[in-house]
Write a structure and sequence with these properties.
By secondary structure, the chain is an alpha/beta fold. The protein has two domains: 201 residues, 3-Layer(aba) Sandwich (Rossmann fold), CATH 3.40.50.300; 237 residues, Phosphoglycerate mutase-like (Rossmann fold). 37% of the residues lie in helices and 19% in strands. It is built from 14 helices and 16 strands. The strands form three sheets. It has an eight-stranded mixed β-sheet, sandwiched between helices. Strands 2-3-1-4-5-6 form a six-stranded mixed β-sheet, with helices on both faces. The protein has a two-stranded antiparallel ribbon with strand order 13-14. A hairpin with a 2-residue loop joins strand 11 and strand 12. The protein is globular and about 70 Å long. The N and C termini lie far apart (54 Å). Bound molecules: 2-acetamido-2-deoxy-beta-D-glucopyranose (NAG) (2 copies). One 2-acetamido-2-deoxy-beta-D-glucopyranose binds next to helix 3 and helix 4. Keywords: ATP-binding, Hydrolase, Nucleotide-binding. It is an enzyme of class 3 (hydrolase). This is fructose-2,6-bisphosphate 2-phosphatase. Pfam families: 6PF2K, His_Phos_1. GO terms for molecular function: 6-phosphofructo-2-kinase activity; ATP binding; fructose-2,6-bisphosphate 2-phosphatase activity.
């Protein structure tokens, strides 16, 4: 049996409270959400405790007056919300498997930071204050525009009025705001100024703290997208074989030729550079070659983007694996995330080797990644917060381009499907090992060929709220001109 233990032992990880500090519209909730998502992706149990959410229970649509420091009613309600959030958080830490709580509140004064610091020390937890400080008006305005259109506080309200109210709310906080300074050098903190333009780090002691700081200092909020695609259909795909380093099939070649058009149709940022990342395997380079030639983008090859290593099963069909290693076949169905191929890798192993890719992706702007099924699943799971028991089973069809656009309250996904048939390599849990050599979507061969005749289908959905659900998407026809 080849069920592997988790390859990195994280039981030694201490329990940490990450306390967000900063004025509204400085991206605190965005950072809090991302930290949670990143940690969960690496199997660290994390939760966000959002003071605003507790406060919202009683005051669903407060106006700026509510946030006035001179309004005792509002002050009382905010204090009660913070206390409720902290109480819930401390209860959550009683389960020693829970590792990182992210307290998302304003905590804009020294005395408030002292209050929370004392609470954390009392409970024997580590802490990390994360201040997002920003005086770049343009950054703040673009953040307000995002928030006012998507914040639960402003659902169903006039956007202009919402933006004005939000600016007033910020002014009320500005009156009392105190940035973290030298007088607080007993605190462990990272201060991120103008979203990474400058960073101040103080008193990091723990391994997980330093990993968090590294992650946080790589983040930026410039608008950008990430395109994700599997390679075009390969010779091995046609034969139902896994692994290997095969060439593209003739249909895979057609996908490679269509890809520049598909990417253009998905909406390219104006004048923004784009970089192509592929694995070191031929089928991804071949898929990227027309993109590189026609659009002149730089291309980088990453070993870390190579397909999940199937060890002794490399080059076999699922049917052959089921016959030769029936126990393994069953074990993989039972726990696909943790199952490690003999002499190969598990999904858990892949996530660990993809961590540098995620760090690099966070630092980067527009990237198009041409990679493999298991790798697409892991990267997609990071952005969409797909849980480990679901991500390895996600259907990632060939000849489909995904465009992921990070937004303040989630990641927007659009799919562009090239109507070039390909075999389906998807094997649902518990199914037989039979190779699906039927042509997907039943597209008649006759419409396929010249790129100008090839349809592109587009579908959009926004996730992150729908956590735990693998997004299912309806395709909408969008023919090329
Ligand atoms: C892949 O394609 C190259 C170039 O067209 C060819 O030389 C090579 O033999 C092919 N490899 C296989 C395994 O078919
Ligand atoms: C833990 C915590 O939330 N501390 C302070 C954060 O800010 C609120 C008000 O916004 C204070 O009431 C809390 O004491």
């Amino acid at each position: 049996m080849s069920i592997s233990p988790p390859s990195s032992d994280r039981s030694d990880v201490t329990q940490i409270v990450v306390v967000m500090v900063g004025l509204p519209a400085r991206g605190k909730s965005l950072i809090a959400g991302k930290v949670k998502r990143y940690l969960r992706w690496t199997s660290v149990k994390a939760e966000v405790f959002n003071v605003g959410k507790y406060r919202r229970t009683d005051n669903p649509h407060p106006d700026a007056k509510f946030f006035d420091v001179n309004n005792p009613e509002g002050e009382k309600a905010r204090k009660a919300a913070a206390e409720a959030a902290v109480a819930d958080m401390l209860k959550w830490f009683q389960d020693k498997d829970n590792k990182v709580a992210i307290l998302d509140a304003t905590n804009s004064t020294k005395s408030r930071r002292k209050w929370i610091h004392d609470k954390i020390m009392e409970a024997n937890l580590l802490h990390l204050f994360v201040e997002s400080k920003c005086d770049d008006e343009e950054l703040i305005m673009s953040n307000i525009l995002e928030v006012k259109t998507s914040s639960p506080d402003y659902i169903g309200q006039d956007p202009e009025a919402a933006a004005k109210d939000f600016r007033d709310r910020i002014r009320n906080y500005e009156k009392v705001y105190q940035t973290i300074d030298e007088s607080e050098k007993q605190l462990t903190y990272v201060k991120i100024i103008n979203i990474g333009a400058r960073v101040v780090i103080n008193l990091i002691q723990d391994y997980l703290q330093s990993r968090l700081v590294y992650y946080l200092t790589n983040l930026h909020i410039k608008p950008r997208s990430i395109w994700l695609s599997r390679h075009g259909e390969s010779e091995f795909n046609l034969e139902g074989k896994i692994g290997g380093d095969a060439n593209l099939s003739e249909r895979g070649e057609r996908y490679a030729k269509l890809l520049p058009e598909l990417v253009k149709r998905s909406g390219l940022p104006k004048d923004a550079p784009l970089t192509i990342w592929t694995s070191t395997l031929k089928r991804t380079s071949q898929t990227a070659q027309h993109l590189q030639k026609e659009l002149g983008w730089e291309k980088l090859q990453w070993k870390a983007l190579d397909e999940l290593d199937s060890g002794v099963c490399d080059g076999m069909t699922y049917q052959e694996i089921a016959e030769k290693y029936p126990e393994d076949f069953q074990a993989r169905d039972d726990d696909k995330y943790n199952y490690r191929y003999r002499g190969g890798e598990s999904y858990r192993d892949v996530v660990i080797r993809l961590e540098p890719i995620i760090m690099e992706l966070e630092r980067s702007e527009n990237i198009i990644i041409i990679t493999h099924q298991a790798i697409v699943r892991c990267i997609f799971a990071y952005f969409m917060e797909i849980p480990q028991e679901k991500s390895p089973w996600m259907e990632v069809p060939l000849h489909t381009l995904m465009k992921l656009t990070p937004k303040a309250y989630g990641t927007e996904v659009e799919r562009f499907k090239a109507d070039i048939p390909a075999v389906s390599t998807w094997r649902p849990k518990g199914s037989t090992a039979k190779h699906h050599d039927s042509i997907s979507e039943g597209m008649p061969e006759s419409v396929v060929g010249e790129p100008s005749k090839v349809g592109i289908q587009k579908a959009t959905n926004v996730n992150e709220k729908a956590m735990g659900e693998v997004p299912t998407i309806e395709m909408v026809g969008l023919p090329l001109p």
